[in-house]
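Trying the structure run again after the queue cleared.
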Amino acid sequence: MTFEQPQSRRAMLRSMVTGSLLFPAILNSLEGNASASNDPLAAKKPHFQPKAKNVIFLFMSGGVSHVDSWDYKPNLFRDAGKTISVNEFQGRKGNFNMFLKRPQWDFAQHGECGTEVSTLFPHMAKMVDDLCVIRSMKSDHTNHYEATLGIHTGSFTFARPSIGSWVSYGLGTENKNLPSFVVIAPFTPYAGGQVWGNDFLPGSHQGTLVVPGAEPVANIRRRTATEQRQARELELLQEINAQHMASRPGDDDLVARTRTYETAFGMQMEMPEAFDFSKESQETLDLYGLQAGSTSGFAWQCLAARRLVERGVRFVELIDVGSSNNWDAHGDMMTHTPLAKNVDQAIAGLLQDLKNRGMLDDTLVVWTTEFGRTPFNSAANAAGREHHHWVFSSWLAGAGVKPGMTYGTSDEYGIDVAENKVHVHDFHATILHLLGLDHERLTFRHSGRDYRLTDIFGNVIKPILS
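Done. Tokens:
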């Protein structure tokens, strides 16, 4: 096969535009009116007027103790050492005699709202007037793997699309040179890549993993003039790609791979710039507690999240997980201290930075963990706490959320939900609602049935909406 030499770059691109998906951004700039109808990541209208345009999802891997952080239980201080009976312990059914365990940190009221927060989070405590703390979260599983899968996908047993993938599928992206869904994590969390997997959704909605370090996204670098040859080479593949897709109509995997090439090409320009903090002021770095030149740590992750959202990334998840430790404090609750220090100022700085820039008005910030930790243990002198999915705490801040409030309560010792239960499905339904998405209408047909993030459950938590 021979190709006739086009008269110009514009003519060459025009000759290859039919059926093209690979470079709509380039074609848009040259032709001015290229359609995005074939682009699986094209921005879509929500079901109704949204409060939030973007989400920053902060996941504390391992299980943060609710009774040592966000859920003040004076009776647990008072009655520490007393025995109680529970009918389940670490997933085993039966009658178990347990000893109530005193919280390791003291609590105090903060802000005009007076929300109680422990001394574990002194910086976030100063931001409570911007938070809606949910003290009645409920999960379905007591194991890390299943609970982590559930808080991300709504499914506690089988792999399903991540919430970030659902948001990408429902709304598309505002910047076709960056992924719509980015995950920043130094190490792989429980449940692995399923945390950001697309599963049966088109592959273009899978989360893009960024690992903090000198090269956050491997093999991505700024394009130079000499590297424009790559663009010309890829453009010449346009006709072949169009012919290949025409012969395989309805092949979502092929469309996703083709769209990935386009995003990867655009990322060469935008991704390095997004992770270049050299123009950030010292005041901003100090706000996050980030040292100039640092390329790791949760403070780096938080500032990166702000910069990505600023550039149109729809959903950014930050996972706090170390190489050998996380919030899973079976042996010693005091391991929460360094973990909290790593994230506390960074998260408070993120909230304040978003406020200063007017971005908190349309950015939803979510803080959660997969479950809490037991207010009791099997030994009177136990230093740690076990897994606890009956009740735990999370918080929301920003677009469309009532600030300076708490919602739901646990019982007198923080063992179970006492009022206004918020199941993980309700949590997800509320996040989607704030983005203008009806969780019952956001569906995908797979294997003969319609699937959704909330399965057949979920209710929007309307009392917390502004």
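The first strand starts at residue 54 and ends at 60. Worth checking whether this holds up in the mutant runs.
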